[in-house]
Amino acid sequence: MSRIQSAIEARRRTGRVAFIPFLTAVFPDRPTTVRAAVALAEAGADVLEIGIPFSDPLADGPVIQRGSEVALRGETTPERAL
């Protein structure tokens, strides 16, 4: 079982759902992404999903699409995001 599956199962056993927030990497900038990730972990996130911005995230919806656009305008690359 993966660590993600383990986190979800641990919550399920207690009758709760896992808290799995999503952040777009380097949105609006790298320091803010890091601060937000730490704050979410401290707030009890079970899993943190950090998305690599890309040029055509239409299926992700308007909020994530806008975050990707802003991050890419800031010259974000997959390497910088990682």
Description of the molecule:
With 82 residues, the protein is mostly helical. It has four helices and two strands. The chain has helices spanning 3-13, 30-42, 62-73, 78-81; strands spanning 22-24, 49-51. The chain is elongated, with a radius of gyration of 14 Å.
Please specify the SSE layout and strand pairing.
Blueprint lengths: L2 H11 L8 E3 L5 H13 L6 E3 L10 H12 L4 H4 L1
Parallel strand pairs: 1-2
Q: Number of helical segments?
A: 4
Lateral arrangement of strands in the main beta sheet: 1-2
Q: Tell me how many strands there are.
A: 2
Strand content: 5-15%
The profile of the biggest β sheet is: 2 strands, parallel
Global structural class: mainly alpha
In N-to-C order, the SSE pattern is: HEHEHH
Terminal CA distance reads 24 Å
- Overall average pLDDT: 91
Radius of gyration: 14 Å
Low-pLDDT windows of residues = none
Overall geometry comes to elongated
Query: Helix content range of the residues, please?
Result: 40-55%
